[in-house]
């Protein structure tokens, strides 16, 4: 832009912009006044219906909140009950063990056993329902406080109400020297009906017995119901808002008026046509949820008849009706107050608009005079900023590429460096103790050399990762796994991880070193998850083939992957681990290697299986390589 044009543009902005600013401010002010006057009038007309909708939404949200709380408590009943009875059995086990340790050198085993039985017999809990029992491997009942006539009898072939031989399960628990939960149907005292019962047994080695206890789910669920109702009775919202609960027989379980609780709504007669109202509400609850309007004779705050709109929802398994509502007189009062607020708001709005418009006009007039002087300087600054930004972006791109490469190399080097460190430290320690044999020395140095060679190869692998030229060779999968185990042996042994192999002798033409990287990444991933579990740690490897593919399955018993993360495990930089453990690049690279370089597929799923009569769940990675 030349100087003459710049001067003309500045002159135009200096004189035309202030005039345009004034005109625009006036037009906007007038339009805002007319538009907002129309809007406020429409708002007043729609206020009634919108206010009802808002109140309906509020009471629905309150009911849904309580419903979700009840649903959570209801669904967690079994787990909470299991935790409770398990803790009880652990307490009894500790008591028995303490008694045994105290008297084992002072009394005979028979005398100690009697002390244990007498001690546990005296302990009850859960309002007298809970007690401990003791069974041996032959099904003989040694302790049964509520039914002492069973003590000393063989109940091995005893069946519950559905024909389930639960005593044999107790015997199996003793054989396995383990602990377990069990569910069966049993009778309460003086009751011919059977009820679902959850029990927990724990093996006690000194006497080859189990100590156990149990609880009827219904009894525990009744306790949960009492807790839920105690909580709901405390809920208040928006001054007089409360939650009421009826059972399907119209008995009040929760109400703002404590005198109503335990009484039948039909007898209280707190609503016009109470029988029809109750039937309608019950129909809505049994079919899900909905709104209902009726006349309530006594509003809690005024004790006067008032129209009420309620929202009710049913919980079928508990036969409960949950509800809350709002009153029409509150609606009218709030509505009138709201209309007054709208009128006041409109007047304040117009006043504010006029003040703001005047102030903005003055500001724009001052700014418009100054703008012409800054246009050229701002343009030059803007141009310079663009150049700086381009330089920064270029530098960031370089650093990102470098950082990604360093992260990938660091991820691949972590395990070999750990092997080198472990082997070197081991032979140094053995040398200090004069216990270093030639065999141990050469095994350690061989591991160090193998790992060093792998470190050396890693650089070339990363450099040629996306290169179209790769050196394939005939590779034995069994031997490839042996190389893998050799590199990972120290880490897996220190973590007490057992590898169960079923590997067939299969030869394929492939990129051996890249295949090795994939196996290491998957096994390391399994290792990182297994160290989090306290029970036995296993990794299972199955290798088979058909006419077209070699199939490699690697799975563990670490509990599996959260379903919401299952589809993301092969995404770059996705990880659920701490940053000190993983970067999220390993499985992504493995997937890239298998699909782009090994002519195969890599998939993952959660897998449930049984091993040595125990049920497990873990993540299962499946590699299929086309032969």
TrEMBL record:
<dbReference type="InterPro" id="IPR036890">
    <property type="entry name" value="HATPase_C_sf"/>
</dbReference>
<protein>
    <recommendedName>
        <fullName>histidine kinase</fullName>
        <ecNumber>2.7.13.3</ecNumber>
    </recommendedName>
</protein>
<keyword id="KW-1003">Cell membrane</keyword>
<dbReference type="InterPro" id="IPR036097">
    <property type="entry name" value="HisK_dim/P_sf"/>
</dbReference>
<dbReference type="InterPro" id="IPR004358">
    <property type="entry name" value="Sig_transdc_His_kin-like_C"/>
</dbReference>
<keyword id="KW-0808">Transferase</keyword>
<keyword id="KW-1133">Transmembrane helix</keyword>
<keyword id="KW-0418">Kinase</keyword>
<dbReference type="Pfam" id="PF08269">
    <property type="entry name" value="dCache_2"/>
</dbReference>
<dbReference type="InterPro" id="IPR004010">
    <property type="entry name" value="Double_Cache_2"/>
</dbReference>
<dbReference type="GO" id="GO:0005524">
    <property type="term" value="F:ATP binding"/>
</dbReference>
<feature type="transmembrane region" description="Helical">
    <location>
        <begin position="346"/>
        <end position="371"/>
    </location>
</feature>
<dbReference type="InterPro" id="IPR003594">
    <property type="entry name" value="HATPase_dom"/>
</dbReference>
<dbReference type="Pfam" id="PF00512">
    <property type="entry name" value="HisKA"/>
</dbReference>
<dbReference type="InterPro" id="IPR005467">
    <property type="entry name" value="His_kinase_dom"/>
</dbReference>
<keyword id="KW-0812">Transmembrane</keyword>
<keyword id="KW-0902">Two-component regulatory system</keyword>
<keyword id="KW-0472">Membrane</keyword>
<dbReference type="GO" id="GO:0000155">
    <property type="term" value="F:phosphorelay sensor kinase activity"/>
</dbReference>
<feature type="transmembrane region" description="Helical">
    <location>
        <begin position="12"/>
        <end position="34"/>
    </location>
</feature>
<dbReference type="Pfam" id="PF02518">
    <property type="entry name" value="HATPase_c"/>
</dbReference>
<keyword id="KW-0547">Nucleotide-binding</keyword>
<dbReference type="InterPro" id="IPR033480">
    <property type="entry name" value="sCache_2"/>
</dbReference>
<dbReference type="GO" id="GO:0005886">
    <property type="term" value="C:plasma membrane"/>
</dbReference>
<feature type="domain" description="Histidine kinase">
    <location>
        <begin position="408"/>
        <end position="627"/>
    </location>
</feature>
<dbReference type="InterPro" id="IPR003661">
    <property type="entry name" value="HisK_dim/P_dom"/>
</dbReference>
<keyword id="KW-0067">ATP-binding</keyword>
<keyword id="KW-0597">Phosphoprotein</keyword>
